[in-house]
């Protein structure tokens, strides 16, 4: 839809340009999906020219502007079996046409923070870490970094010459609820880094919807770690991602007990795509199936 309050588009945009009334623009598929009465200017990140996916010593760096189509097309680093296994499945969980796939960005998916965000599932399951850039002038945006949420990795205060202030937050902590994130005014998501240690090994995945091509009601990913541990990431059925970590593959009873203890009753998503009780049931069923698949 037309955003009729928007009077200017800055393209390409850079960190530090944000002022009140601005919105960062990724692919625009969520932003243009509903009225944005408070937005008067768009800061176009998609035109920034950032390399979508870079293989680094520490792992895979995914730019915020990397599209869902870029993720599906990425065939590099075949040794990153966990990435390739989950990436295909998560992209398919994206209920959208090829037109949306070609413009919707990984960063936009995380920042829109919908429970059924498949790029949230992918990057949370692989222990992704978000690089957040904020304005250098604290009166312009971020408050004292010490006010940051639990799970935040300490901020880099910047270089003192007006450059952006960096902080890092794990993806699993980045999304705080349905449509909410840890981003403060003026901050933008620059990239997500998936550490090398999480990119190899076995994964299993389950997704369920009310109907065949429906939005995810539950999307779970399990991963065996190099040390023989087990990581289970729950998304879509809950309003924000939940992650359970075990030093070894637990038996089913232990897994289900820990799941019940970790997810409070009011954290189950309640919308037209599924009732909370059914989502909780799907989550338990999928968790047990993932455990069984990885045990085999
Ligand atoms: C037909 C259709 C089907 C869809 N299916 C799904 C689905 O199954 N699951 C799902 O999760 N979503 C779905 N969506 C919603 C949307 O397409 C996705 O969430 C998409 O990933 C958003 O990415 P984008 O790049 O288009 O974000 P945008 O629309 O550009 O931005 C979304 C929000 O994030 C902010 N933002 C964007 N990039 C950044 C950044 N780098 N830093 C800070 N803030 C930023 C924007 O200001 C805005 O508030 C669907 C949409 C359509 C139209």
TrEMBL record:
Record field: compositional bias (Low complexity): 136-157
A GO MF term: oxidoreductase activity
Protein name as it appears in the record: FAD-binding molybdopterin dehydrogenase
Region ranges (Disordered): 136-164
Residues of the FAD-binding PCMH-type domain: 1-199
Species annotation: Winogradskya consettensis
SUPFAM superfamilies: FAD-binding/transporter-associated domain-like
